[in-house]
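pipeline stage [seq->struct] | target=Membrane-bound lytic murein transglycosylase F | organism=Microbulbifer yueqingensis | residues=818
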Amino acid sequence: MVTDKTALRRTAHSCAVVFCVLLACLALSSCDRGEPGQGTPVGEQPGLAPATGGTTAPREQREDRAAAREDETVQKTEYIEKGDLAALKKRGIIRFVSLTADDQQYLPRKAIVTQTHRQLANRLAERLKLQGRWMIARTPEEALQMVAEGRADVFADNVSDTEQRREIVSFTIPLLQTPDVLVSGKKGPDISDPKNLRGTELIVLAGSSYADRARELVKKYPDANLSVREVYLVDERDTLFDLVSKGDNAVTILHKNIAEDTLQYRDDLKIGAVITEPEDIAWAVRQDAKQLRTRINNFLTRTLVTSVPERTSHWYAIKKSGVLRFATYNGPLSYYLWRGVLRGFDYEMALAFAEKHDLALKIVVVPNEEDLVDWVVDGRADIAGASTTITRARMEKGVQFSVPFLETPQRIVTNRNKPPIETLGDLAGRTLTLRAYSSFIETARVLQKNGVDVEIDVAPPDMSFATILNKVAEGEFDATIEDAYIAEIQAALRPDLDIGMQVSDPLPQGWMVKQGHKDLLKQVNRFMEKFAGSDEYKKLFAAYFKPDKHLVQKINARVVPGEDLSPYDKLVKKNSLERDFDWRLITAQMWQESNFNPKATSPVGAQGLLQVMPRTGEDMGYPPPLYDPDKNLQAGVKYMEWVRNRFKDPLPEDEKLWFTLASYNAGLGHVQDAQILAEELGLDPTKWFDNVEVAMLKLEQPEYFEKARYGYARGAEPVAYVRKISKLYEAYTNMATGDVAMGQARAGGSPPAAATLSGRSCRYGCWTPSACGPQLPAAMQTSPLSAGAPCPPQPAAIPFVPGRWLWPPSPPLSGGAE
């Protein structure tokens, strides 16, 4: 055990640097729902109220049961206890205080995999074999006083460790380090430097270090006419952000990690200047609670070291983690959602690769404005691919490509009502609008270099290829370049599009891995070469690259980010919000239950969208029939809440979702039997995946179900049920918000890499960029291409043939080395 204070802090600092991403989504406080039996806040729930007002707005209580539970919890937590860990164990309770202001469960981009302060604290309580109870303070200073005076035991939140605060409490090792930054609305004042602030109102949380920073700015810039308004959290955190976003000259101050996390789900704010040095974020305990502090330090150190959300992309690290992170774009060929089914050529190949190596596939949906290369190089993904052409420019940025799995030429696409482009001469005076980060930019620049009078317009980074093609079809853009197979599919979708001349040889496409990760690349290449010779690959290739009416129908019917997930989104949102469920989870469950069919009836009589049994509906206050969508959702979601409330502490909040779904499918009793059996088998009874689900499967076997309280269970059904919904739920979190599934998006994005003007030719002298070819021959560099010599027509996509490297181009007409 570490006893030296300096060494302990040094160790903690190193842990924080390495693992700060673990808690990058920690907000002003944990935003998890108050759990049954866990405790609800003392006093009223918080929103925003002026600090001078001193009152809080009461919240409307949803159910009498919740009110009774709150009263009971208040009685159990309103006492003074200034003792150390032994005193807490005698009571059997540890009281956590936070600034929780949200009634809704907060779900960051990574869905439910990110640990929050609340989850860490609940795990601590479990480790200490104590019942966790939660209380709410209106300000950080109030929370610190509650701990110091014995009205709470641990301030478990995003707390700044300062010398002034150390006078009344002790702090644990830091969970991370972060500076403070200025934050304003997207159209707010210039916050790139605090010197630029003029007449600005600084709106900050009362009694916080942010308020101290605001007053320091007022003092430092006396001529700037700055003012400070301190507010209390009285409802939900976003109310503060709304206030800042709508203010013409309003600015707030936040820890950088909170600000970055907020921008992951809000696009109406911006982050400005860093105004402090990085400071420690830690938890606070009483000064004389030395034993408790030591136990918390040990727990946090172990957690920070063992719960690593990031890892290297080396093959051994991937195998050890059991998860393959595959980065791609959301699009009609690489990865999309159709009628509750995940589809896409890259997705299905990645799934086959993951299954071959017994890995769970984690799809990382990258925003359109970002380059897939960066995600691989930065270690935020193991493999990346989305119809990605192999180019030297990409390799020079730090990636290596797999053997290609197909080749495709590039073609001009125009509006059918504009003059067609059938020769190089037809390109004269035309404008090509091209996708940022794409190989099409290189192709167009080579055309320019060789005398073709064509303008190049690189689209904004956040504009997808589908948007560009739509604008071409609508006549807003003149023309573009696209892979031939995508052009054919889009032309089938949009009759206004016309496919013009081919401007390249078939170019190879493959997956990217980080340079130097030879073992991973070896595994990918070995898979590609074997998979490409299989019937499965042939069927997959035909399904995506030989477009027919069925593929077109599926693409047209796919779920598009930002659009409705189902015909019942409004009803699902309303009913989910009332009972603290993520509406996307309920939507995924609704698809699994009924495929969005409100008239569905099961063989055993379950009815409607959520397949509610008539007796269950009656118990919930909704007698049958249950085919009305709103009535069915009210009954089903209320029953989900009832099941969820049956699971007591210390079940983590994220795990509770899976246990609730399993119970909805198999019954609460069978799931509780599986928890008991899991513990007997040495598995974790508080974790569903790879733990309780294993025990659930065993309840189909006589040697196990004969000893179970509720007997035989068809364990395979709830196991498959939860896994399917969890995967669909994660996909929906991307589709419904347009946000990435995993990792932190970069603001903006780097400009496209400069084109590598190496070339390769088809037999008719049409030069295109090569992934590795040498420079153009001197004659071709000085003479324009023949306007009448386009590349000959090629198949839209050529499948990979095992044992044949598709990269080398056909030799030039003149012969000799290229």
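stage status: PASS
auto-comment: The domain at 179-275 is CATH 3.40.190.10 (D-Maltodextrin-Binding Protein; domain 2). The mean pLDDT is 76.
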